[in-house]
Protein 1
Amino acid sequence: MEINIVLEELQKQNKTVYKNVFDRFYKELVIYAHNFLFDQQASEDVVQEVFISLWENAKNIEIKSSLKAYLFAMVRNRCLNYLKSIKITDDLNLIDLNSMLVLEDDLDLISEEEKNILYNQILKIIETFPESMQQVFKLKFIENYSYNEIADELGVSVNTVKTQLQRAKTKISQSLVVVMALLSIRL
């Protein structure tokens, strides 16, 4: 459907069109949100809030590019607000880099070589983590375990898991500053 027709139908609160938009983008948006939040439930909540907002505010929506871009921007903004609410900051703008790497439409902004550099640098950083932090990190991001599953697997508390993951993210962020600076010079 053309964007004007879809938007017009959303403004009329056409449930069929709304359901089609939801079905088309929901999973992709949850995956996108998860790349910010690293929490499946929170990611699903954020995306559901976006769709509720879309339904409730359809009459006031002005989309200048595409519905997909609009939805992704809404999810990104809600994720950033969520992170701020739990006192996580992004002083190094790594979230923006992450969102660039995740969005298929923006993948051409960073070359394969640069993605490989980032990926290899992150692997090197992870190797420097203490063993327990490496285990937590790998279970979360490679095995896709939940906080509770990691805690059960390693015999630690959920708070320990969250603390280890936060420390890991901080170490990665701090270590990538130089790599990011070098890549930005080349971009």
Note: The chain has nine helices and no strands.
Protein 2
Amino acid sequence: MSNCLGKVGRTLAATTMLATFVAMPAIADTDPKAVLSTYADIALAEYEDALTTARALDAATDALIAGPSEETLGAARDAWKAARIPYQQTEVFRFGNAIVDDWEGRVNAWPLDEGLIDYVDSSYGTESDENTLFTANVIANPSIEIDGQMVDASKITPEFLSGTLQEAGGIEANVATGYHAIEFLLWGQDLNGTGPGAGNRPYTDFDRTNCTGGNCERRAEYLAAATELLVADLEEMVGNWSTDGDARKALMGGDANAGISTILTGMGSLSYGELAGERIKLGLLLHDPEEEHDCFSDNTHISHLYDVVGIRNVYHGSYTRIDGSKVEGPSVSDLVKAADTAVDVELSAKIDAAVAAFEAIAKRAEGGEAYDQQIGEGNAEGNAAIQAGVDALVDQTKSIERAVGALKLDAIAFEGSDSLDSPDKVFE
């Protein structure tokens, strides 16, 4: 077992899925600007909730560092899982919003070559033709070589992680920051393949007086820096969606129909190429547990579910916050309903069906069959459950295309995936 990225996954070329319709003004009783305002308000609320839970994670990891124990490690892991729920609902704001898409890699980049960060099992390997930092292990080494130059790594700070180590050497697999770097530090590698069990890093990896794994002081330093940086990055995105924030102004300051296209672009691209294709179908085709999104913690079923919930949030213009309050208002659904009621009914049903499919996957996982087991070779029932999720997302995307047509918007190019469009290429 090595990292969270199969070699095939690194070389897949994205294709596009087109919704081709004649550009005409949208016809609806609902004010499109009001729909954009609801969308921006939901973005702000979701990023605020992501920030709140990230701060709780930061506090929990500080407690782990101050007093390593089974209890503090468990609490930090629970805080990480809780933080994923609001954050994953924000992923629908990618693709159409350049500010979000350009920033997203800092907080949710995956897969990662974890040997860059810390010690790994011998099964991981010792070198990679694609990454000279494959086993750099910055926690063990106060200096590392990047692009032929020795780099001082004696102090692991948020600035060092974001400015030097993240995507070092221009290699995307060198993920040094964000949720998945923190996940690896809290769980360690999942060496169970498609068998039961997640990563099992001992709390003593952070215990300076009873240290396992070596370099416990620096491991704690890395964890503290990574969680501090996550909070800072989310604070930035909250600012971007606030009243005078750049993301809100970019959305609200342009043509209203272009803004509605932005919403649908995010919905369709996340649904099809990103989630159905790269995050799910690829791993199912390869039966490879290294291709799951939250591969150290076995939390993938939750991350996928809340991606789909996020799509539903923006279509219906309604988000339930972590405190139970709601942010809601005029929605894309209202626009589509006014233009073609049948399309709105169809898309609403398809979105609900997609959520139900991923609730079924989550139910299997909570019942003891983790996501990586469900995609395992020879698990016909588990494979079928995952494929049902893929099918629901593809079906949902077709109805998103119909919504684009109903609103008479310009053609939208949704993100694609060879895993869906040209699966034979996956095995080349």
Note: The first helix runs from residue 7 to 11.
Protein 3
Amino acid sequence: MSYLRVSNLTKRYGSFAALGDISLEIGEGEFVCFLGPSGCGKTTLLRAIAGLDPQTSGTIHQKGQDVSALPPAKRDFGIVFQSYALFPNLNVADNVGYGLVSRRLARRDVTKRVEELLALVGLPDAGPKYPAQLSGGQQQRVALARALATSPGLLLLDEPLSALDARVRLRLRHEIKALQRRLGVTTVMVTHDQEEALTMADRIVVMNHGAIEQVGTPQQIYRAPATAFVADFVGSMNFLSGRLAAPDRVTVAGLSFACPVQDGLAAGEDVRLCIRPEDVRVRDLPADASNRLPIEVAELDFVGSFCRASLRARAAPAIELTADFSSNLMRDLGVTAGSQLDVALPPDRLRVFAA
């Protein structure tokens, strides 16, 4: 049974449709990420769920209750904004307890709850300090503690890590996810960072132009993208323009490649053949390997634990691929710029989309 259900939601600004007929269900205790480029509608959807920017049409149900027309103060959620939005004139303890005080809880109960929350987010001694005395990562923890103070059933995170440096962001990813699992609070996070979504979410909602492109687990989104947009936006992807010669075969620049059987595409139709750089196979190729391709290494970029190689097919120079070669492979095969070797494109790793 879904905890949050969004049905046929639209949001219009004059003639511009920011959201178009969005429907989505989120289970209780689930961590869901809205992922997409700037302007795709993900923040608009989050704000509609919160009641901060009400929808033009459609309904929102939370725990079976229709909250579509309720003001934010009447909805059961806590929210953390990108800018943290802490009160600079209040110390940390008063920031965290602000929502509890407004509910007229006894001062003793507020103090106890604030101490519990600051310990929960790893800032047990920060109560007397002011936001300006804290680092960005510490301010984010305070904002998270404040959002959790009233024990909301729904936690909304609007790009909460985007203002932090890479090292702090990486650490807080794991801390937020561990905290969410411990509390079991249903969480929706907006992000444009695919790595954040892949590492934190139970499910990802990929959005583009005010519509949902795909909903799935991180593994499903990455391994089986439903559209060319998802394939291109999440992770790195090679795209080869070709033509569907048969339900299980694509021709690219005069070369034929075996691929999964395509339903819904007709022979002769222009298509895009896709494969991820790490799926290009090099080692231990049998003589009859499917989609075996002699290539030349045109360029190598060192990326630490692996090298990103630009490859060019020797029989069809128009075919250019990017492949990720491990440091061990580079050493064992002596791969350098200008090396000639064979690679294979495993059919089960190929995706085909209409051009």
Note: The CA atoms of residues 34 and 190 lie 5 Å apart.
